């Protein structure tokens, strides 16, 4: 903990799909810092792990405390272990019209991930979600709260509606959220009622940290949110994953990457004036980076890339070791693609051989969209609700009213990131989905920790601790 603050000076980033899994979060939290699990795609992460690993003693202990045993039994039976090489059975998607069973599974999955991360220690654990992924948001939040999550971290949008939702969930009250298409058409509300998960005492309301790219956005969230924003994680443009686009007109460099300018600079004085703690993120790889953040008035830092390649990371071990070997051999390029993600946000992609960053590997992949977390809703000609994604087959996207130009260069991040954590779908003929690797611009700095081979989460904390005045592993 930071001296005298009662807050962690270090937040482990919520990375990708299951890279920030419960094992990594638990290791960081045991050391007294904020361990974070990723809530993105947690339903399919949960059921695919069941199909690969079955129910371990630790998971069994967690599931025995879930308030709806019948849901546990039905889920374990439905997603029993698969034969080697067989395709995964996929979780049912949540839609605006069909929410019940899919929501229930999402609650269970989020509960299990957070409960596993919190088991056996009293350190703080958070869950990270993308605001842009609306459909599973409410059940994921409630499942995490059932497990006693300490922090909720959300970016990739303006989560003004989330603080109030946490307040209502703490009282076990239902929550409804207004929903619209990208064109502004009204969609059915997203609704979640906790009643079917028991009516016990009030739940503890987790602290809410909004992930922002500037003091401007932080100020807007402070004024417009429907409840208390307890702090901010301020991600600079060098951070991995999804980045906020540059402010003002988009300009790109010779490689097509967005150019960030003076308007994107962070006013730390304005952040301090908000009167709530903030943590700086993006390019934090050394004790000097930590010390510089604290000098600017930050409560601490959020760190992603160093943790992404540690032993406890959820990244597929062979892929993780391959990236470390690449970094040890030569500098690895990290592009900020304006086309890869269907969200409209720039997305960091590391140039790793054999992954979807390779243009030839990308071309050879058959376009499939069967997870759908990044789909956008649209109104069909008959007034119904449909879903499309520019990473799906082009002819299907166009038939749904999409512009074919939007499909160029799009990557199926859902399947690529699921593959990166070793849960890639098995396709016809036995082919397994190809991974994509996302990292911050400072990816090559992991070489400092990897010089002696593999390293652990505690090595990351010890490496950075002197910048926080020696407040390292407890």
Describe the structure.
The protein has a domain at 10-314 and 446-468: TIM Barrel (Alpha-Beta Barrel). It has 17 helices and 14 strands. An eight-stranded parallel beta sheet has the order 1-10-9-8-7-4-3-2. The radius of gyration is 21 Å and the shape is globular. It is α/β, with parallel strands linked by helices. The protein is 32% helix and 14% strand. α1 packs parallel to α5, α2 crosses α5 and α6 crosses α7 (162-170). β5 and β6 form a beta hairpin.
Could you name the key traits of this structure?
TIM Barrel, globular, 474 residues, alpha/beta, 14% strand
Helix content: 25-40%
Low-confidence stretches: none
The CATH topology of the domain at 10-314 and 446-468 comes to TIM Barrel
Q: How many helical elements?
A: 17
Largest sheet: 8 strands, parallel
CATH architecture of the domain at 10-314 and 446-468: Alpha-Beta Barrel
The computed structural class is: alpha/beta
Return the CATH class of the domain at 10-314 and 446-468: Alpha Beta
Mean residue pLDDT: 92
Instruction: State the separation between the terminal residues, measured CA to CA.
Output: 8 Å
Number of strands: 14
Strand content: 5-15%
Note the overall shape: globular
C-alpha-based Rg, rounded: 21 Å
Q: What strand order characterises the main sheet?
A: 1-10-9-8-7-4-3-2
């Amino acid at each position: 903990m930071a001296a005298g603050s009662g807050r962690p000076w270090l937040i482990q980033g919520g990375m990708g799909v299951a890279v920030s899994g419960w094992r990594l979060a638990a290791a960081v939290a045991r050391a007294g810092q904020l361990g974070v699990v990723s809530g993105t795609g947690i339903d399919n992460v949960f059921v695919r792990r069941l199909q690969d690993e079955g129910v371990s003693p630790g998971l069994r202990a967690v599931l025995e405390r879930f308030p709806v045993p019948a849901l546990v039994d039905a889920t374990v039976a439905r997603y029993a272990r698969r034969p080697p090489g067989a395709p995964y059975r996929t979780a049912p998607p949540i839609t605006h019209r069909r929410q019940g069973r899919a929501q229930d599974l999402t609650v269970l999955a989020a509960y299990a991930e957070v409960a596993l991360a919190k088991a056996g220690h009293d350190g703080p654990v958070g869950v990270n979600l993308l605001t842009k992924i609306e459909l599973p948001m409410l059940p994921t939040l409630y499942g995490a709260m059932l497990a006693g999550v300490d922090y909720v971290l959300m970016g990739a949008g303006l989560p003004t509606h989330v603080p109030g939702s946490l307040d209502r969930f703490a009282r076990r009250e239902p929550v409804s959220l207004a929903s619209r298409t990208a064109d502004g058409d009204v969609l059915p509300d997203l609704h979640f009622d906790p009643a079917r998960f028991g009516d016990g005492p009030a739940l503890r309301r987790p602290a809410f940290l909004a992930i922002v790219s500037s003091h401007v956005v932080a100020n807007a969230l402070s004024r417009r949110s429907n409840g208390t924003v307890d702090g901010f994680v301020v991600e600079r443009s060098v951070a991995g994953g999804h980045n906020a686009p540059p402010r003002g007109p988009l300009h790109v460099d010779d490689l097509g990457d967005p150019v960030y300018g003076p308007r994107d600079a962070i006013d730390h004085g304005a952040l301090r004036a908000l009167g709530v703690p903030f943590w700086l993120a993006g390019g934090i790889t050394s004790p000097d980076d930590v010390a510089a953040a604290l000098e600017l008035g930050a409560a601490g830092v959020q760190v992603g890339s160093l943790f992404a390649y540690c032993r406890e990371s959820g990244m597929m071990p062979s892929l993780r070791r391959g990236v470390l070997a690449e970094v040890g051999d030569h500098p690895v390029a990290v592009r900020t693609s304006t086309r890869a993600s269907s969200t409209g946000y720039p997305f960091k992609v590391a140039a790793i051989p054999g992954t979807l960053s390779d243009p030839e590997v990308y071309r050879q992949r058959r376009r499939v969209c069967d997870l759908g977390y990044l789909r956008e809703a649209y109104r069909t000609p008959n007034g119904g609700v449909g879903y499309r994604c520019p990473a799906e087959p082009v002819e299907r996207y166009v038939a749904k009213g999409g512009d074919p130009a939007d499909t160029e260069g799009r990557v199926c991040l859902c399947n690529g990131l699921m593959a990166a954590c070793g849960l890639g779908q098995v396709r016809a003929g036995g082919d397994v989905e190809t991974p994509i690797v996302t990292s911050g611009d400072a990816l090559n700095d992991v070489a400092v920790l990897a010089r002696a081979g593999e390293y652990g989460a505690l090595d990351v904390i010890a490496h950075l601790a002197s910048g926080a005045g020696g407040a390292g592993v407890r």
